[in-house]
Amino acid sequence: AVVVVVAAELPEAAEAAEPGEPVEGPEAAVEVAEPALVPVAEPEAEPVPVVAVEQPVAVEAAPAAVVAEADVSVPQPPAEPAEQPVPEAEAEVVAEVVSEPESVVPEQAPEQAPAPEPEPGAMPEPGPVSEPEEIPAPARSAPAPGYDDAEREAVLRVMRERRDIRNGFRGDPIPHEVLLRVLEAAHTAPSVGHSQPWDFVVIRSAETRSTMHELAQRQRDAYAKTLPKGRAKQFKELKIEAILETPVNIVVTADPTRGGRHTLGRHTQPQMAPYSSALAVENLWLAARAEGLGVGWVSFFDEREMVRALGLPEHLEVVAYLCVGYVDEFPEEPELTQAGWSKRRPLSWVVHEETYGRRALPGEEPHDLLQETVANIRPLDAKALGEAWERQKRMTKPAGALGMLEIISAQLSGLSRVCPPPIPEPAAVAVFAGDHGVHAQGVTAWPQEVTGQMVANFLGGGAVCNAFAHQVGAEVCVIDVGVASELPATPGLLPRKVRPGTADFTTGPAMTREETLAAIDVGIETARDLVAAGNRALLTGEMGIANTTVSSALISVFTGVDPGEITGRGTGINDEMHARKVDVVRRALELHAPDPADPVGVLAAVGGLEHAAMVGLILGGASLRTPVVLDGVSAGAAALAARAIAPESLAACIAGHRSAEPGHVAALNKLGLRPLVDLDLRLGEGTGALLALPLVQSAARAMHEVATFDSAGVTEK
Ligand SMILES: Cc1cc2nc3c(=O)[nH]c(=O)nc-3n(C[C@H](O)[C@H](O)[C@H](O)COP(=O)(O)O)c2cc1C
After folding, report:
1. DSSP secondary structure string, 310-353?
2. Where are the domains of the chain?
3. Rounded distance, CA 476 to CA 518, Å?
4. Which CATH number fits domain 164-330: 3.40.109.10, 3.50.50.60, 3.40.50.720, 1.10.600.10?
């Protein structure tokens, strides 16, 4: 068994330890200059056989130092931490990480670092560094002028300062001429074929507003019932409409028949009619902002119910229900961001050059997602880490009495750069599903179709991971990164198939390097989506018949342990099949001779699509300073690959559980991670990580809620 020692960025000399406190070994103080997590062998614990054959640290890609003889040790904070914490790390995380490109890049450095993302609410940075290519054309005259600086700034300002408002409305009436200006602005919107498909129904009647309020309330309740507990708690606090508090409500409709059957541009895309009306809404919203009027868009309606309640013609589509009124103030940030419900996605995530995936802001060279992500992975923040240890000492409990949970809460502080750290809630388990060509070798008793069938089960809510997620209040997010069969579109399924299953790695590489990188990107993008959607913890999950064979191969490559020692019985196989499975792994390793220094190459040769995606999730989570709770053997294999790509990604990892698969023990030892739960589980799907989630949340909550000796008036020892 091993224990994780959390070490910081730029640590300095350790403070003198107090009596009874765990003491950091001297080696750690010397060696922790770079690594985020330093695995430390725990000598008095049960010896684990694979430790004996572990590769010497010197040949590892990771800079982490293994301190073989140390006691169970917990590092002390550096005397004067070098890095400042970010006080509101939560709201800023997404935007902020983009501006820190100077971290470790293991392969080659990107040709050009991405430009920093403008702070939300700030003016955009000056224009592109290189001039856009000119289209050769006879120069006749100067192009039509844009606005002067002040006018342009006014236009940009109104866009920046437009807010969706639900709180702080005033009852002041809206003068007719003001409302008229706002409606005129809406009416100048662009529209498909100039069909101008909108109508505006201006509602002032208290009775109608009360009817609409009741309809919205019913939908709110119905929506709340669908939420995982972690989300439902947050949602309860949110205000989602101000129908009764605003003097004017405006219904914006779209007439899909307006302009007749030959409306230009609507021929193949009927949705252009409601899109046009949505543009009218944006115009209205901006004009209202310029008048000092707040607007709140309410979409908690059943459309047909609404059409009937308002007596609208049946052929109309309702595009928007808007609450309009004067307000006390316009918040700088979206109300959902302020409430911690969501985060702003940086512009650099969504601008592609020429083809999708070549991300680049104008004037930048396109950069690849993996390089950008790795560049943003930072060590734990020394100051927050130091504060966490200090706080643990002052909490009303004997020093060290929370054992491993103290280490977790310090890690969470260092990761988030704040102490106490945010409670990792809401959380989402990302279940990546993929099939494996090596299934053909008879390494499992289960038919391959079960992968797709289990995906349907996850989406239907009937699997063990659903039950555990329900219990702990987490969201289940299912990603098809490589299931062999075609899966029907289903709510909750992210269709991200890179290829329909890997090839049989006993006869050739499992996949190409490009496919491997694409699967890693799927994981990174999943991490980005889940974190931007407000999740504060990511859990790894996976489904893929035959994937323990793949995990064994990966673990063998990264740990150097013989396949015979780490290849387990997966879903339960007999001796004969087990012997074949070991032989299959052995043959694959002989065929490919994968080089652990080239982790992407290892994944391509003997990996799985879900393993590569989990690598991406770990790297993505680490780059967004969000904890990643690892599940079992496949997550362990992925974490080894992630560490080989970016050693500091381990700073975000928490081992949820120890699987019954022998390979998992080898992986955890190599990673230096101590599992929180040890129940002989061998299911996957994220089940072990889900069981561990409340422990991780408890570690953070204790930091928030446990009194200190001073505050509680308790005498110290
Ligand atoms: C199509 C659409 C529907 C929306 N529906 C709701 C809603 O029902 N309730 C709500 O509180 N906000 C709603 N909003 C507002 C968004 O939550 C808001 O635009 C987003 O959080 C960003 O904040 P900002 O508009 O202040 O920048 C809606 C916005 C749009 C564009």
Report:
1. TT--TTPEEEEEEEEEEBS---SS-HHHHTTS--PPPGGGT-BS
2. 164-330, 427-695
3. 22
4. 3.40.109.10
42, 685, 705, 716: which one is catalytic? 685
CA distance 320 to 298: 7
Closest CA to 696 of 472, 383, 394, 381: 472
Phi, psi of 652, rounded to the nearest 5 degrees: -95, -10
Contacts of residue 634, Cβ cutoff 8 Å, sequence gap at least 6 = 540, 542, 544, 547, 548, 550, 551, 608, 610, 611, 614, 684
Instruction: Establish whether residue 163 lines the binding site of ligand 1, counting it when its CB lies within 6 angstroms of any ligand atom.
Output: yes
pLDDT of 367 reads: 87
Q: Helix, strand, coil shares of the chain as percentages rounded to 5?
A: 40, 10, 45
Pairing outcome for strands 427-434 and 493-495? unpaired
Helix, strand, or coil here: 653?
strand
At 183 the pLDDT is: 98
Residues 625 and 379: their CA atoms lie apart, in Å, by 10
Ligand 1 closest atom vs CA 333? 26
Is 685 noted as a catalytic residue in this protein?
yes
Write down the pLDDT at residue 16.
34
| Omega before 426 within 30 of 0, i.e. cis | yes
Q: How far apart are CA 233 and CA 249, in angstroms?
A: 29
pLDDT at 664 over 70: yes
Instruction: Return the DSSP state at 481.
Output: E
Mean per-residue pLDDT for 464-470?
Answer: 98
Level-2 CATH architecture, domain 427-695? 3-Layer(aba) Sandwich (3.40)
- Tell me if 339 CB under 6 Å of ligand 1: no
Summarize pLDDT for 618-640 with one digit per residue, the tens: 999 999 999 999 999 999 999 99
Mean pLDDT (the chain, rounded): 85
